[in-house]
Design brief:
Elements: E1 3-4, H1 7-14, E2 20-23, H2 25-38, E3 42-46, H3 53-61, E4 66-69, H4 72-81, E5 86-89, H5 96-104, E6 110-113, H6 116-126, E7 138-142, E8 150-152, H7 162-173, E9 178-182, E10 187-189, H8 193-209, E11 215-217, H9 234-246, E12 255-258, H10 262-265, E13 269-279, E14 282-285, H11 294-298, E15 305-307, E16 316-322, E17 331-339, E18 347-350, E19 371-375
Parallel strand pairs: 1-19, 2-19, 3-4, 3-12, 4-5, 5-6, 6-7, 7-9, 9-11, 11-12, 14-16
Antiparallel strand pairs: 2-13, 8-10, 13-14, 13-18, 15-18, 16-17
Helix pairs in contact: 2-3, 5-6, 7-8, 8-9
Bound molecules: pyridoxal-5'-phosphate.
Pyridoxal-5'-phosphate is lined by residues 46, 48-49, 68, 90, 184, 187, 219-222, 259-263, 355.
Protein name: ornithine decarboxylase
Domain Orn/DAP/Arg decarboxylase 2 N-terminal: 32-266
Keywords: Lyase, Pyridoxal phosphate
Amino acid sequence: MHSYPDARSVVRDLVPDEPVMLNRPHAAARAAQFFAQRFPGTTMYAVKANPSPDLIVLLWENGIRTFDVASIAEVRLVRALLPEATLCFMHPVKTIGAIREAYHTHGVRTFSLDTLEELAKIVEATSASDGAAAEDLNLLVRLRVSSEHSELSLASKFGVDLVDAAPLLQATRQHCDALGICFHVGSQAMTPFAYVQALDRVRAAIAQASVTVDIIDVGGGFPSAYPGMNPPPLEDYFAIIHRHFEALPISYNAELWAEPGRALSAEYSSVIVRVEKRRGDELYINDGAYGALFDAAHVDWRFPVQALEDDLTQPLADFAFYGPTCDDADYMKGPFDLPADIQADDYFEIGMLGAYGAAMKTGFNGFGAAQAVVVTDEPMVSLYTGTRQEPKRSDNVVSLR
Ligand SMILES: *Cc1c(COP(=O)(O)O)cnc(C)c1O
């Protein structure tokens, strides 16, 4: 992949007619090292946030050895790239065929579930041809927890309710080598207290079921920085999770796992777009709801933006965007702050699209082509450069940008 110093040099060199994805391998490497070194347990990468093969290999090279996969296609993808990686199939609703292939062909030993029916499927699909039950399963029961502290809920679809958890935990215990409890507090959890609440519920589930628990998996939800969303430092999350994990009534050698998607991938990518038309404070641009800006359209997520033209002199003003398709829903209300004199043919960069941005692109309406290049400058925002407020002065080793 061709490498450039920054977005402006890409625009100068390519004058691109279509959006250009900018990838920053150094930023993803830094995030991976941060989790690998500082999270007090095992970090797995939730592949759905961004399944780019380059990113998956990069995370592996920077210390992430375990991958949270949710479909058989993700299992095959990661296994083909990384024969040695540990894969955990963390979607609580799987087909028998997917479980069978994952277990027998790709060496997957870890599965999540939230019903007795799913447990029965896993037991059947992992047994040997003579009917002998697998003895090497790690089974994690997904507990429903609150999403109230997160920007995107994951509370309604999956997870057994606390009142129904005991029989499921007891039944699962009979079929596994290691028993775990997992949950997801919702994506972009804005306070570590979200995990405290969830771990309290885990404590209650363990007490009611009286089972030995070997794995606590706190899921994803670790935040990134976006306009209007400035979460506390990740170190605070790690410290608080660790403290509450240690206080649980679990086996003495129990393991702590996490499944960050967003936090490992958000800073990896941004996109260069071009203004095709301006109508008042609305900019018609060449990427949108069916491209990398799904969340900007569907949940009004705001992303950082910066103009890439030297001749824009006016102060910043609020803009909304229309994407390139003919669909009225291809609209992103923002507000996004760009120079007030921006106009058709001007380029700008939209940042923090590595998570749930690049992964969401479709070819709807003939749009969606985008070439990708590497850039070596810093992302517009970073949780990992030390430029944010650190929790302790002793940690405050910063290189000023
Ligand atoms: C989506 C998902 C993740 C990743 O969540 P983030 O908020 O991106 O960290 C982790 N685990 C499961 C089960 C998921 O569905």
